[in-house]
Amino acid sequence: MFPAEEALSGALQKRAEQDLLRKLSVVTKRIDFTSNDYLGFAKSPVLYQQIEDKMRNSVKRVGSGGSRLLSGNSEEAEAVEKMLATFHNAQAALLFNSGYDANVGLFSSIAQNGDRILYDEFVHASIHDGRRLSKADAFPFRHNNLAHLEERLKISTGNIFVAVESVYSMDGDCAPLIEMVDLCNKYKANLIIDEAHATGVFGKGLVQNFKLENNVFARIHTFGKALGCHGAVVLGSDILKSHLLNYARSFIYTTALPLHNLVSIECAYHLLGESESVQNNLNENISYFKEKIKNAPQYIWLDSVSAIQSMIVPGNTEVKQVCKKIQDADMDVRPILSPTVPKGKERIRVCLHSYNTKGEIDLLFKTIENI
């Protein structure tokens, strides 16, 4: 055993004693109520064929060859960025290798000494990691609490950045974006919105649904959820893009996305533009699920109009036990434990999809009723 492994083993043992030890598991053939593949694009034969056809007529290469600023840039990458900027009604777009890389690169580089980052307490871990690497002071505000946000804004100095998600990944609820835009305009703050769980579920995203594009400093869209592929984009001004090219370390010091990834993103966006019926199926399932909740009083369900529906089962051990019983009925759900969510708010997070049937939803609720 290496000297460091003793300490690592102790940390793992402590986590195991707290019933928090994470392990990998292979995705099963159970009914899918857990993936982020909201529109079924990740296993779409149509999307697969479109990607294959486009790759067949493309330059034959596997990797990009380097970072974008060295040998890894390409006409294809720039064309995808131009397409994304047009699709999302933004001045400029910059690709990142993942949503995590996008948030870390953005938040670590934009704020300087004397600036301030205000963030919703429920924002994603990638935003937390980015703001920790920033030179700015950072303070949370209570979840979706406009009054608390305004209290923070009143006493903030320097350039102020406000970080929220349009749809929150654990609760599934939506940020009050219109009111937040008004507050940020009032206090000359820069609003940043992560649209990861809204893209494709709510059309092009909630920012565009509410026509707020010109009032948002930066938007992050990820491709690994409803779009079924991988990567992310930061949308904003030409100035923001240039700044990220020069200062975002998660962009500068990483190998660029390969051609297959770029083609996948392009094809996924093309398919999204033709998928109104698929999106309607998802919305119908969400509405049907919400009706079923009304007759399921034994557990508390968080209020959500998105594809993410969470059932509170307090206690890490307790939520894992309930989850296991649902899995034994051939449904793939996963427990969300503290400290990922606050203690006492442990939950089973149900993700709905366009391809889930009403019969599958009925089976889920019948199983829960019999626990």
Descriptive key words:
about 375 residues, alpha/beta, seven-stranded mixed β-sheet, four-stranded antiparallel β-sheet
Written account of the structure:
The protein is of the alpha/beta class and 371 residues long. 43% of the residues lie in helices and 15% in strands. The protein is built from 15 helices and 13 strands. The protein has a 7-stranded mixed β-sheet with strand order 2-8-7-6-5-3-4, with helices on both faces. Strands 9-10-13-12 form a 4-stranded antiparallel β-sheet, covered by helices on one side. Strands 1-11 form a two-stranded parallel ribbon. The longest helix is centred in the last third of the chain and has 18 residues.
First CA to last CA: what distance?
Answer: 44 Å
Secondary-structure class: alpha/beta
**What is the tally of helical segments?**
15
Rg (CA only) = 21 Å
Unreliable parts: none
Mean pLDDT: 96
Large-scale geometry: globular
Number of strands: 13
Q: How are helices and strands ordered from N to C?
A: HEHHHEHEHEHEHEHEEHHHHEEHEEEH
What is the helix content?
40-55%
Strand order, main sheet: write it out.
Answer: 2-8-7-6-5-3-4
Residue fraction in strands: 5-15%
* Major pleated sheet: 7 strands, mixed
